[in-house]
């Protein structure tokens, strides 16, 4: 007997870009990760309903059944889970720009946990998010919400925001601005309703370069992550050879090189995660870590925000540009950008004005 389904408050996104028909969005199945087989039917229900919810948008859609038919021609099967290399190969085979897959597991008291991933072939980015909701009868509402999540995950701003950042929150900020520019940014924050804690010095030269801060474009937190699947072939080709012909110094150097490669390349996302955890411990009284990267002309920025208490990535947005109001309010491009960013503190998908969504 079908079990009741459900209302779910999900991670929220803002729609800022309309697809052209050149884009193809492929939908895999959401795997039932529980041992309760009575939920298996939802694997196809979720996938097919999401495809239906996308109709009417100028996007080419691929159902899971269509993907299976295409893969069968090559003696392949549609999987529930994919490695990074497999994702790249899959999208090439089915000629899809975006591919969605994931899993769900029913919890006690009619709650359910969903973990969903969206891979973009064009940007080589994989966004994964986790959410928990309660089982109710609102399955169509759930599908509509998930549809918006997927659509916006592929937008030009890749905008994700779980909650508003409340007034009086204490913020730690890391940015690529130089000292004089930081003062402009801080002056706008000081006129707002937030408390700022400096975690980098305001020396004449910023110790955090634009290139270094760019590394925080992709982040892995405990529940959500955005990462770039670059240079996946390098891992296959890197091989450290050990042998009895090595003396002690050579052996030690090879092991050290191997550790460096693992720490700074293969395990770099995990290394960043640990670094952020250490920063959180050193700023126990603060609420959020805000990473703000400005472009060279200071006319655009991307933001990453981490909740220190949970360690979760709660806000990510790129291509932020100041609106007319901010440009009229300030002459400085940095102050315009900062003012625009602060406005977004208060926004969720349900509170965005219609004219903002249509930009």
Given the structure, what is the number of helices? 12
Q: Beta-strand percentage?
A: 15-25%
Distance, first to last CA? 46 Å
The total strand number stands at 13
CATH topology (fold) name of the largest domain: Rossmann fold
The top level CATH class name of the largest domain = Alpha Beta
Order the strands across the largest sheet as they lie in space.
2-1-3-4-5-10-9
Mind telling me the CATH superfamily name of the largest domain? TolB, N-terminal domain
Spatial shape: globular
Structural domains: how many: 3
CATH architecture of the largest domain: 3-Layer(aba) Sandwich
Radius of gyration in whole Å, from Cα?
Answer: 23 Å
Mean pLDDT: 78
Largest sheet: 7 strands, mixed
Q: Structural class per helix/strand content?
A: alpha/beta
Order of helices and strands: EHEHHEEEHEEHEHEEHHHEEEHHH
Which regions contain 5 or more consecutive residues with pLDDT less than 50? 1-20, 231-237, 350-359
Percent of residues in helical segments?
25-40%
């Amino acid at each position: 007997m079908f079990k009741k389904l459900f209302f779910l408050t999900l991670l929220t996104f803002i729609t800022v870009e309309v697809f052209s028909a050149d884009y193809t969005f492929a939908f895999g199945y959401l795997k039932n990760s529980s041992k309760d087989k009575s939920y298996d039917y939802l694997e196809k229900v979720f996938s097919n309903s999401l495809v239906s919810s996308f109709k009417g948008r100028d996007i080419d859609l691929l159902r899971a059944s269509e993907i299976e038919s295409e893969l069968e021609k090559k003696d392949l099967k549609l999987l529930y889970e994919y490695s990074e290399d497999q994702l790249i190969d899959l999208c090439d085979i089915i000629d899809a720009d975006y591919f969605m897959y994931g899993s769900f597991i029913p919890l006690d008291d009619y709650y359910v946990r969903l973990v969903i991933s969206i891979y973009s072939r064009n940007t080589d980015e994989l966004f994964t998010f986790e959410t928990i909701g309660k089982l109710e009868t609102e399955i169509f509402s759930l599908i509509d919400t998930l549809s918006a999540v997927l659509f916006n995950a592929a937008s030009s701003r890749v905008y994700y925001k779980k909650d508003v950042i409340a007034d009086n929150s204490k913020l730690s900020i890391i940015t690529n601005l130089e000292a004089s520019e930081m003062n402009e940014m801080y002056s706008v924050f000081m006129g707002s309703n937030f408390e700022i804690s400096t975690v980098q010095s305001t020396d004449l030269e910023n110790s955090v370069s634009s290139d270094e801060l760019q590394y925080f474009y992709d982040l892995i937190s405990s529940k959500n992550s955005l990462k770039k699947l670059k240079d996946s072939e390098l891992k296959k080709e890197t091989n450290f050879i050990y042998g009895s012909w090595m003396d002690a110094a050579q052996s030690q150097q090879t092991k050290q090189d191997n550790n460096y490669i693992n720490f700074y390349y293969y395990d770099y996302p995990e290394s960043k995660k640990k670094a952020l955890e250490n920063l959180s411990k050193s700023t126990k009284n603060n609420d959020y870590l805000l990473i703000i990267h400005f472009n060279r002309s200071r006319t655009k920025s991307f933001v990453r925000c981490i909740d220190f208490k949970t360690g979760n990535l709660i806000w990510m947005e790129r291509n932020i540009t100041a609106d007319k109001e901010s440009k009229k309010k300030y002459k400085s491009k940095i102050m315009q950008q900062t003012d625009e960013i602060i406005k977004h503190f208060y926004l969720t998908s349900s509170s965005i004005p219609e004219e903002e969504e249509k930009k």
